[in-house]
Amino acid sequence: MIINHFKPIGCGETLPQNNIHAVSVSMPKLQDVIDYEEGFGEAMEKIKSGYPRFTMHPYLRILASYIKDKYKVSDSYEVVLLSSQKAVDIVSDKYYIHNKIEIDEPFGVILVQNGTCQLKKVLMFIQHVGYNLSSRFAEEYLYNIGLINIKHEEELEEKELAFDTVGSVLGKAYNQPKENITLAPSGMNAMYGVVKGLKNIQRRNGRDILIQLGWLYLDTMNIVKHYYEQSKVFPDVKNLDLLEEYLKNNGLKVSAIITEVPTNPLLLCVDMKRLRSLCKKYNIPLVVDSTLATPYNINLEDYADICVESLTKFASGNADVLMGAIILNKKSKLSNMNIEFFKHCDKVYIKDIQRLAFEIKSYEKRVKEISLNTKTLVEYFKSCSYIDKIYYCLNDDNKSSYRQIMKDENSYTGLISVTFKKSFQKVYDNLNFAKGPSLGTEFTLLMPYTYLAYYDYIKSDEGLKQLEKIGLPKDILRISVGSENITDIINEFKRLED
User: Fold this and answer.
1) CA–CA separation, 443 and 448 (whole Å)
2) Closest CA to 474 of 443, 445, 446, 453
3) Are strands 181-184 and 230-234 parallel, antiparallel or unpaired?
């Protein structure tokens, strides 16, 4: 008899549970995900929070309403909260927005007319560049003015030590001096800082084409669209012949190449040695999103000029803080231009740094426990009759590339994506793991990746053709493996054998 150690989590509950600063939300049924994406349905009555760049936090809703009343803002305007006045200036310059009133607050506020295309564009832009106001900042503000009467209790590093703690851990993990590292309010704000910095530096050299290698995270692609008139996408990281042919004619016009190592959610890994050789030949900076593998599983020091990491994921491990980092490689000429990259990132709220500083002390231990669990779970899946295909970092067609950068035999990226020979909806609905957006958590977290990341694509024949073109199955389950007892994790999946 299999003992069930995982219990169902209700729709709309925060992940982690009972944590107001959670960045994920429970969507235990596939219909919940569809309701969320459609914006109506039974689940929408229960889902009050979510990933902060996509869903307005409950405290930010209260704060926006308070600001609207405090400054007597007309109902014809939407109050949009931002992380700082700096963020206000950037958004306003991009979309020609001007506050109608003077607002004296320790955060950013813009007013956008309701019912306009501009409002949707502004909110999407903020989502892409990650200038969101911290939920912990909103909590402190609301508590101080008496609009909430309790603050979430959590373990924090001492204020005086927090920044150095985070910087020291990242510096050691990446083998880089702390001055080569900066923090940002989100991983996307860090990527935004890199893209803006590269554009400013490289336009002096006549380089204005940005290459995206692999079908990158959607918001990364959107940042590129915002700031590069010319960009080129090579969806298949395994086919560097196409890239090499393109560079023969355009290499000296290329500003940078951006890629993920490995890719999300198919865990494909580019041949880094060959890619580095091409970058060196044409003097092209290489930017790598290292979030999925982390610096404890792979070593990019001989390859990447710049790494970008979403610290919200494995570095936090608890899905309760939004933060990112830029890491410049001391071996790269670009490391001497750190100000050009760092100046575009916004300041991170101190309590978020304190929370991450507490969590990041367990970063290496957490990653290695998850890696070992992933390795064992992959072997179990290989024997499962209900599994159709397994995507992981050491697939047969991936093995040689990943081993180039793999630190040791226990350096599995903590994600596995799978397709099934059974009904996807039945599989998803019946598993009792936490289910929602994000990854890198100490608790096993499932995500119906295509439904949450590319829902618009699955609603049309044209979109489905595009998914087929990039090799992304509609019914794919991404598993962010946790650090629970691996026997318990496997036993939960064994319930699918019936």
Assistant:
1) 17
2) 453
3) unpaired
Q: Please enumerate in sequence order all residues whose Cβ is within 8 A of that of 266, keeping only pairs 6 or more positions apart, or say none.
A: 391, 417, 471, 472
Separation of alpha carbons 39 and 273, rounded Å? 45
User: What is d(CA 325, CA 311) in angstroms, rounded to the nearest whole number?
Assistant: 7
Mean pLDDT computed over 82-106: 79
DSSP states along 154-185: -----HHHHHHHHHHHHHHHHT--GGGEEEES
Q: Are 8 and 24 in contact (CB under 8 A)?
A: no
Whether 100 contacts 111, CB under 8 Å: yes
Closest listed residue to residue 436, CA positions, set 14, 8, 5, 7? 14
Task: Tell the residue number behind the tokens 């935004």, with chain if given.
Answer: 192
Closest CA to 138 of 49, 88, 64, 87: 64
Per-residue pLDDT tens digits for 300-359? 999 999 999 999 999 999 999 999 999 999 999 998 888 899 999 999 999 999 999 999
Calpha distance 99→89 (Å, rounded): 10
Cα–Cα distances in Å, from 151 out to 29, 61, 254? 31, 17, 49
Q: Distances from the Cα of 83 to the Cαs of 246, 341, 445, in angstroms?
A: 40, 18, 28
Q: If you count them, how many residues does the chain have?
A: 498
**Residue 220 class from Cβ within 10 Å (0-12 exposed, 13-18 middle, 19+ buried)?**
buried
Query: Which one-letter DSSP state was computed for residue 335?
Result: G
Give the model's pLDDT for residue 98. 61
Q: Cβ neighbours of residue 371 under 8 Å, at least 6 residues apart?
A: 297, 410, 411, 412, 413, 414
Q: Measured between alpha carbons, how far is 225 from 239 in angstroms, rounded to an integer?
A: 23
